[in-house]
Write a structure and sequence with these properties.
One of its GO terms (molecular function) is methylmalonate-semialdehyde dehydrogenase (acylating, NAD) activity. InterPro entries: Ald_DH/histidinol_DH, Ald_DH_C, Ald_DH_CS_CYS, Ald_DH_N, Aldehyde_DH_dom, MeMal-semiAld_DH. It comes from Thalassotalea litorea. This is methylmalonate-semialdehyde dehydrogenase (CoA acylating). The chain contains 16 helices and 23 strands. It is an alpha/beta fold. The protein folds into 2 domains: about 1-245 and about 455-475, Aldehyde Dehydrogenase, Chain A, domain 1 (3-Layer(aba) Sandwich); about 250-435, Aldehyde Dehydrogenase, Chain A, domain 2 (3-Layer(aba) Sandwich), CATH 3.40.309.10. The strands form 6 sheets. A 7-stranded mixed β-sheet has the order 15-16-17-14-13-19-20, sandwiched between helices. A 6-stranded mixed β-sheet has the order 10-9-8-11-12-22, sandwiched between helices. It has a 3-stranded mixed β-sheet with strand order 1-5-4, covered by helices on one side. Helix 1 (about 40-60) packs across helix 8, helix 4 (about 95-110) packs parallel to helix 6 and helix 10 (about 260-275) crosses helix 11. It starts with a strand and ends in a 16-residue tail after the last strand. It binds nicotinamide-adenine-dinucleotide.
């Protein structure tokens, strides 16, 4: 069984440390195991990043960017291998893994603009003969902690931008599917990154806590579930670090009576069940306005769902794969059962589907539940599985109130033909990312990603322009070179 180690100072590191199995969720087999770093291993990675910082900080941004250009090419050349590694450990189908990788590459493309992004701000003659400018300096060693559901994309939301801004990085990927992340980090070294600028440590809470408390780490980016995000934000802040911690979600789509229902159904299929619903932007609740819209939606969804196929990652005709672990499969099935017990109707039941040749895989089929209410456990929680719940309301205001009352505020969307309704919705809804007839409004790499309420802890969103601000600190310089003959006396008030 192969062992997945760490990447510290540009070298593969295998130590005598505890291990955890890494499963193929389609077969249920433990095919590899991953080392769980001790505090001293993480400290070694931090020391390596710390040592690399002075020289990397002094490297011109254009030279940092050139490494990213080569990295992008290597990612494209190695796309099949990256998607295979994602599929083997996460379970997502090859076409979905390719989409994830592409979104990651777009963040590398954004990072290639480092010289432009770091130009700063300049004002001449802010006073007589006085110039002033702001520059954006790197923070030092920064850390990233990432979730299982996007093992390639989410790390690439973080380290390419942090690194081109002049920081050095320690990344702690998810211990459930670390291979693609590690492979990608090695490609960046192949592209010419000096040793120590990016280090990868695999591990669990021990590794994370070391990153959160070590005073050499200046900032922490986290993406994962809300309880952990809250802990990360509180601990990093208490230890004097800058922190952005992106958490969980419950994303609602409002289906207005005037919506193009066939289009809405097509969009909902991919947004609710794609990647087995294991996306923080997955649409998991359809809020139908009026019984006519609700009846039409449920009937058309039911019909469309008969054609969906769940299976293993390497068969591209499958629509989505297994969920991540056996425990998670049980949890998703438990939420479906609880909705049923609490009075909802399971219209399409995906519990325990038969997948030929994969009897031990962690599969849940696409599930549709009607008549869900805000009091039900399945409504309140983030299920993170291929389950779409339909809530019936009478008015758009009622639909918006439901969304605003939910603890999460990551993404949302409205399906309508009415521009006025759409504008009112995007203007007032208390959610960070909004789609108008667009089911997964994930911002492109040159905007920034983030939710509101308990979907994000911190002031700045991830990647894009906010990412540049997060990974740099502003320094403002005010400068005068007095000409030799002129000397002013002391002044005790601000110039007026
Ligand atoms: P998770 O919170 O279990 O794990 C995320 C990371 O935290 C992993 O690296 C893990 O090792 C670490 N971790 C887990 N428990 C910890 C603990 N007690 N102390 C310290 N570190 C700990 O999340 P997950 O199951 O890997 O990912 C799914 C979750 O991530 C979902 O809630 C999803 O909505 C969320 N997510 C959010 C976004 C976003 O942008 N808002 C994006 C992707 C995923």
């Amino acid at each position: 069984m192969s062992i997945i180690g760490h990447l510290i100072n540009g070298e593969d590191i295998q130590l005598d440390e505890p291990k955890q199995s890494v499963f193929n969720p389609a077969t249920g087999e433990a095919e590899k195991s991953v080392l769980l770093a001790s505090a001293s291993t993480v400290e070694q990675a931090i020391a390596s990043a710390q040592a690399a910082f002075p020289q990397w900080r002094a490297t011109p941004p254009i030279k940092r960017a050139r490494i990213m250009f080569r990295f992008k090419e290597l990612l494209e050349q190695n796309a099949d291998e990256i998607c295979r590694l994602i599929g083997q450990e996460h379970g997502k189908i090859s076409h979905d893994a390719a989409g994830e990788l592409q979104r990651g590459i777009e963040n590398v493309e954004f990072a290639c603009g480092a010289p432009q992004l770091l130009k700063g701000e300049h004002s001449r003659n802010v006073g007589p003969g006085i110039d002033s400018w702001s520059e954006f300096q790197p923070l030092g060693v920064v850390a990233g902690i990432t979730p299982f559901n996007f093992p390639a994309m989410v790390p690439m939301w973080m380290f390419p931008l942090a690194i081109v801004c002049g920081n050095t990085f320690v990344l702690k990927p998810s211990e459930r599917d670390p291979s693609s992340t590690l492979f990608i980090a090695k490609l960046l070294h192949q592209a010419g990154l000096p040793p120590g600028v990016l280090n990868v440590v695999n591990g669990d809470k021990i590794a994370v806590d070391t990153l959160l408390t070590d005073e050499r780490v200046k900032a922490v980016s986290f993406v994962g579930s809300t309880p952990i995000a809250e802990y990360i934000y509180a601990t990093a802040s208490a230890n004097g670090k800058r922190c952005q911690a992106l958490g969980g979600a419950k994303n609602h789509a409002i289906i207005m009576p005037d919506a193009d229902m066939d289009n809405a159904v097509n969009q909902l299929l991919g947004a609710a069940f794609g990647s087995s619903g294991e996306r923080c932007m997955a649409l998991s609740v359809a809020v139908a306005v009026g019984d006519e819209a609700a009846d039409a939606l449920v009937a058309k969804m039911k019909q469309a769902m008969t054609g969906l196929s769940v299976g293993a990652y390497d068969n591209a005709s499958n629509d989505f794969g297994p969920v991540i672990t056996c425990q998670h499969k049980d949890k998703v099935n438990g939420f479906i059962s609880s909705a049923e017990q609490q009075g909802a109707t399971v219209v399409v039941d995906g519990r325990n589907p038969k997948v030929e040749g994969y009897d031990n895989g962690y599969f849940v089929g696409a599930t549709l539940i009607d008549g869900v209410t805000a009091e039900m456990d399945s409504y309140k929680a983030e299920i993170f599985g291929p389950v779409l719940q339909v809530v019936r309301v009478k008015t758009m205001q009622e639909a918006m109130q439901l969304i605003d009352d939910h603890e999460y505020g990551n993404g949302t969307c409205i399906f309508t033909r009415d521009g006025e309704a759409a504008r009112y919705f995007s203007d007032h809804i208390q959610v960070g990312m909004v789609g108008i007839n667009v089911p997964l409004p994930v911002p492109v790499a040159y905007h920034s990603f983030g939710g509101w309420k308990r979907s994000l802890f911190g002031d700045l969103h991830a990647y894009g322009p906010d990412g540049v601000r997060f990974y740099t600190k502003r320094k403002t310089i005010t400068q005068r070179w007095p000409s030799s003959g002129v000397r002013e006396g002391a002044s005790f008030s601000f110039p007026s």
